[in-house]
Fold each of these.
Amino acid sequence: MPPFDQPPLGRPCFQLPRGARADAALALGTFVLVAVAEGQLLRSGEGSTPSLIASWLLIAAVCGALLLRRRYPVAVGWFTALATGGYHLWSDTDGPLVVVPIVALYAIAAQGRLQAAVAMAAAMVIGMSAGTFAGTSDINGTAVFMLAGWLVAVVALGTVRHGRAAHAEEEARLRATEERLRIARELHDVIGHNISMINVQAGAALHRLKKDPAQAEEALGAIKAGSRETLRELRATLGVLRRVDEEAPTAPAPGLARVDELAASAKPAGLTVRIVRTGVERSLPAPVDLAAYRIVQESLTNAAKHSGAGRVSIRLSYGDEELTLAVEDDGRGTAARPAGAGGGSGIAGMTERARALGGELAAGPRPEGGFAVRARVPYGSTGEPMEEGDR
C-alpha cells in the first residue's frame, strides 16, 4: 500500500488551484495576455511614452485587483470596470483586459449580490454605448450588442452558481439537524432506559435491604448488569461519533431478537413481562428492527418509572407488509405523570421513530385501566420470512 502522503497509483496528481492560488493564477494569466499585446505595441514603436506608462500601470492595477475579488467583490468589480475603461482610452491596443471586469462580475453574482451585478453590467454597457456615440473606431453597435449578451450570460451563470451553493448549504444544514436529532433520540433511548431501570432497582434494593436481603442482592446484581450495559452502549455510540478505528462491537445489535433481554431486565424493577408473538416471524430491515426495539424499550421504561405497573404485555404481530406492536400495562395510566413532568421526550421520540419509517404510533390510557402504546411500522421493500433454523 502506498504511503498516506502520496497519491494512489493510477490517479492523476495534478489538481487545479483553488481559493487564493486560483486568484493569483488568474491575475498572472491575464497580465501575461495583456502584456503580450502591449509588447507588440512597444516593438512597433507606436504610442507615446506617457500613454505606455499609464497603460502598464492600469494593467498592473486591474490584474492585481483580482487577488481581492473574494474578499471585496463589489469594490473590485467597480474598480476593474472603471480602470479597464480608462485603459482603453489611454492605450492604443485593444488588449484582453476586459476579461478582468467580467470575471469580477461573475464573482459578484456568485455571491448572491444580484443588484450590484446588474448595476455594474449596465454601467459597462452604457460606457461602451457612449464610446460608440462618441465615434470611437474600435467600438461599434455590434460590439456593444455582443458585450451585453456576454454580461447577461455571466450574471446568469453567477446567479445559478449562488443558487446551487445555497441549496447545497441548506441541505447540509438539514442533514446535520436530522443527524443531531437522531443521535439525541438514540442516546435518550439507550441511556434513559438503563438509567431509569437502575434508579427503580436501586430504590427497590434500599427498600428490601433489611426486610429481604436476598431480593436486595438480586436488585443490586441487576443494577451492576444494567450499568455495564449502559457503559458498553455509550462507548459504542461515542466510538461511532468519533469515527475511531476500534474493533467492531461483538454484542448483538439492538433488535427484536433481544426483546427477551428487555423483559428480563425489567423483572428486578418489579415488572412481570409477557411477550406474545403472532404471525410469521421474519427478518426485519435494520431500521424497522431498531425502531421496534426502542419503542418496546421506552415503553418498559415508562411503565417501570411512571405508571407503578406490575404486569406488562408485549404483543408483536408480523403481518404481510407491516409490523404491529403493542405494549400494555396495568398501572395508573397518565395520572402518575402530569403532562410535561420531568421534561421527558419518550413518547415524542417513539412517535418520530415510527413516522420516519412511514408508520404511526398512539399512546394513552386504556379504558380498563393502565397505559398502552400501539405502533404500526411498515417493512418497506424488505422483510423476508425467517427460515425455521433462524427462528
Amino acid sequence: MNRKTILAGLMAAFFSVPAFAQQADTTLTYHIEASGNISNGTYAPLWFTANRYGLSSQKPNSGYVRTGLLYDKALKHHWHIQAEIDLAGAADQVSAFTVQQAYADISWRFLRLSIGSKERPGFPLTKNERLSSGMMVEGPNARPVPQVRAEIPDYVTIPGTGKWLAAKGHVAYGAFTDWNWQEDFVSPGNKWARHVFYHSKSLMLRIGNREKLPLEFEIGILMAAQFAGDQLEKNADGTSKVIVDMPDGMKSFFKAFIPMSGGSDTPWGDQVNVEGNHLGSWNFALTYYLHDWRFRAYLEHFFDDHSQMVWQYGRWKDGQLGFEIDFPKNRWVSSVVWESMSTKQQTGPLLYDDFAGTLGYQISASDNYYNNYCYQAWQHWGQGMGNPLLPGPIYNQDGKIIFKSNRVRSQHIGISGDPSDEWSWRMLISFARHWGTYTTPLDKQRKQFSSLYEVSYTPQWAKGWGATVGVGLDRGNYLGNSTGGILTIRKTGKIF
C-alpha cells in the first residue's frame, strides 16, 4: 500500500458522497476568507503563526486567500453526511497553493468515518481552542494530515452504568504530504524523509452524572506514530540518496497499532526498541459546574517512549497543567485559561543501553522530545504537530528538520470576552524559557514573550460578513523582537 493508493482512495470517497445522498434535500454553504499580516521582526509574532492549522508563515509578512464549499445533510435512520473542499492561495508561505481541507464524514448514530484532510482540534482531551496554547501531541498547529479515521467524536454513555460512565475515542491511519517541502528546505549534508505514514489512536473515559452530581472526571490516553517511508540525505549537488528504507507492508501497519520491535529490515535502533517513531500523552480532567459557572482543571502528560509512559523513573515531571473558568453570561469576560508546561526533564540527561547485557541494567533517558533519528522530527510542513511554544523546524535557518529547543518551561494565559452579539475579543500572553536539547544545549537560557490582542466584528447589518484585527507583540532572545498587525476578512453564506 503506497501513498498514491491512499490518496486515490480518499478522493474517490470524497467525490462519491453526493451520490450517496442524492435522494435527500441538501445544504450547501460557502466561505471566502482573506488574511494578511505585517511585522518588523525577523519572524512574525508567534501567535500570528501558531495554532492556525499550518495556514500561516513564520515570515514577517505573509497572507492568503481561501475559499471552500461545505455540504451537510442529515439523512434518515440516523445517518449524516458532511463533505468539504477548502482551497487556499498564499504569499510567503511554504506553498503558493494549498488543499487545506478535502474530506468526507459519514456518521451513523455516535459513530463516524472521516476520510481525507480535515482541520481537527485536539483530541481526546478537550481544551479551549481559542485560548489554550495547544495540545502536546497533535492539535491545530500544523497542516492537516490526510487520513482515514474511525471515531466516536463525542462522549457516549456506556449502557448499564446509570449514566455514570461514558467513552469516546478513535483509530486513524494516514500519510504525511510534505516531502517536497522537506527536500527543498534541507541543506546539503542534512537528512529528510519521504512517503512517511501516520497513525494515531485514543481512548477517553468520563466518570460522572451531572443530573446527580455537578462533578466530572476524565482519564484517557492518546498515542501517535510515524512509520514506513524513507530517510534520505541531501548531497552537495542538490540530489539526495536513500539512507534508510523502512518497511511499509501490512505488518508495519500492525506494529504501528501495537508498538513492537522492528525486524531485520529496520535500523538497529528500531530492532531493540519499537518500529517507527511513537509518542503520546496521558490526559486527565476534572470539571465542576456551579450554577452558570464552569471550572475545569486538566493535565496532559507527554511521553516520547515507554520510560515516561509509566512511572519507571519516578513521578512525572513533564506535561501541561491547565485551569479554565467559564463565567456566567456578561458583557466583558467569558472565559479565562491558565496553562503551565514543562518539557525540560525528559527522564534526565543520561542515556545508557546495555544491549550486550554485561552490566545487567539499562537507563532510557534523554528522550529528546519531538526529535527522531529516522524521521527527524514530529512535524508537518515545518510546523510542530504539538504545542507551538516549542517552535518547529520552519524557524531553523541552517536547513535542519529538528527541534532545536525541546527543553522548555512556559506560562500561558488566555482571556476572551463577548461584549455583544457582534463583537468579541481575545488576548493570549505566553512566556517561555528555552534550554535547547540535552545533546545540543543553547549557549545560555533564553527567554521569549509572545502575545496577541485580537478583536472580531460580525455585523448584523451585513449578514455573513466578519472581520478580525489583531496586534502581535513579541519580545525575547530566542525568536527575537517583533511587532505587527494582522487583518482577516471573511464571508459565509448558503448556496442552497
